[in-house]
Amino acid sequence: MTEAAPIDPEALIIEMGRRARSAAAKLALAPTEIKAAALAAAAAAIRESTDAILSANGEDMARGTANGLSAAMLDRLKLTPERIEGIAAGLEAVSRLRDPVGQEIDRDTRPNGLILSRVRVPLGVVGIIYESRPNVTADAGGLAMMAGNAAILRGGSEARSSNRAIHQALQQGLAASGLPEDAIQLVPVSDRAAVGAMLAASGLIDIIVPRGGKSLVARVQAEAKVPVLAHLDGIVHLYIDKAAEPEMARTIALNAKMRRTGICGATETLLIDRAFADPAPILSAIVDAGCELRGTEEIRAIEPRAVAATAEDWDTEYLDAILSATLVDGVEGAMTHIATHGSHHTDAIVTQDEATAERFLNEVDSAIVAWNASTQFADGGEFGLGAEIGIATGRLHARGPVALEGLTTYKWRVKGTGQVRP
User: Fold this and answer.
1) Which of 122, 194, 244, 410 could form a disulfide with 148 if both were Cys (CB 3.0 to 4.6 A apart)?
2) How many domains is the chain partitioned into structurally?
């Protein structure tokens, strides 16, 4: 019996890209109700496949444990019946959102009678490169398709069994609605060369969205020959102002750090106004919750269980139960620290002083800024977007949680009555 010939990653991606381009042309014209029906059918297929998905995820978890994945990585990888239900519900939520394709952004009539309008259209083919999180398979595939795009998904090897099981359910939804199954494709190999082939697929893939660790995102941003929509770091700050209500500050700080430590909206640095009356209960609650607190000498004087922070801590995204903390001189000191060490992802202030809050919201240059709310709300689902394909911290095209609208561009439509240019 002869062995199968090895797969050429470059040839594979080129073929997948061609099929995706053909599917994208059909999706761009698909009625909203057909796309919504496909997502509803996919959600039903995911629910019906819960046992199979859990079994596949069990294989991934066992392999990840044996390979020494961190607790944070295993938490991102793990699926439960509740998380699978969340995946299905997320697809249904996206199916009910307003379809951006064909939406008129604005319209103007020129003095010569020309009518100009801008109308939203799909981006085309979206490549998503991600690690660990199997839910991204459904979230990214569903969002791309609902916005009229074809998707090429390249998940991490650590989640390959889970991704395949979820992708199979998505394909069932597409088939049930008469949409091309090539609309959502999953790269079938774990070869890292496939990532390089996607990054070089200019003309076949229109945009790349990386979801994963810093090394993955850095590679994508450095090597991609197509546009990239991403954030590199989630160095998220929570600032407790002198006018913060103490119990609110304690509750928000605890949730912002400890609700889920492995997500990009988790607070990594706590800034406390030197004029805030009593920081001790906040710091104590964080340590009591099992978080390692790394602080300055002032912080350690308030909470003796804290360990000394180093210069690197202020520029570190832990994605773990670790928090750096320092005292600052008011909102000015907080904003200076954020401008120096932040990553333009999410930053929040707790205060009862509206003027101070408005200054923070106006002057902090981040994709998401919050007042009296946990940073863990930095999520497309919580923003009413159904799900998100990722969070972008750049300044072009889309910023913050990227969902349906962020997966479209626009074209100008010009209507005349015979005008010629003089």
Assistant:
1) 122
2) 2
For 22, phi and psi rounded to 5 degrees? Answer: -65, -45
CATH number at residue 258: 3.40.309.10
Structural domain of 313 = 236-377
Helix axes 135-146, 81-95, angle to 10 degrees: 10
Q: Rounded to whole angstroms, how far apart are CA atoms 166 and 41? A: 13
3-state secondary structure the chain: CCCCCCCCHHHHHHHHHHHHHHHHHHHCCCCHHHHHHHHHHHHHHHHHCHHHHHHHHHHHHHHHHHCCCCHHHHHHHCCCHHHHHHHHHHHHHHHCCCCCCCCEEEEEECCCCCEEEEEEEECCEEEEEECCCCHHHHHHHHHHHHCCCEEEEECCHHHHHHHHHHHHHHHHHHHHCCCCHHHEEECCCCCCHHHHHHHCCECCECEEEEECCHHHHHHHHHHCCCCECCCCCCCEEEEECCCCCHHHHHHHHHHHHHCCCCCCCCEEEEEEECCCCCCHHHHHHHHHCCCEEEECHHHHHHCCCCEECCHHHHHCCCCCCEEEEEEECHHHHHHHHHHHHCCCCEEEEECCCHHHHHHHHHHCCCCEEEECCCHHHCCCCCCCCCCCCEEECCCCCCCEEECCHHHEEEEEEEECCCCCCC
Distances (CA, A) of 148 to 32, 35, 408: 9, 8, 8
Backbone angles phi and psi of 221, in degrees to 5:
-65, -30
* Same-domain pairing of 220 and 289: no
Do residue 181 and residue 145 come from a single domain? yes
Q: Which residue bears the tokens 């080129």? A: 14
pLDDT of residue 387: 77
Mean pLDDT of the chain: 94
pLDDT score for 1: 42
User: pLDDT tens digit string along 123-155?
Assistant: 999 999 998 889 999 999 999 999 999 999 999
Residue 394 lies in a domain: no
Are 75 and 320 within 8 A, CB to CB? no
Q: pLDDT tens digits for 150-191? A: 999 999 999 999 999 999 999 999 999 999 999 999 999 988
Full-model pTM: 0.86
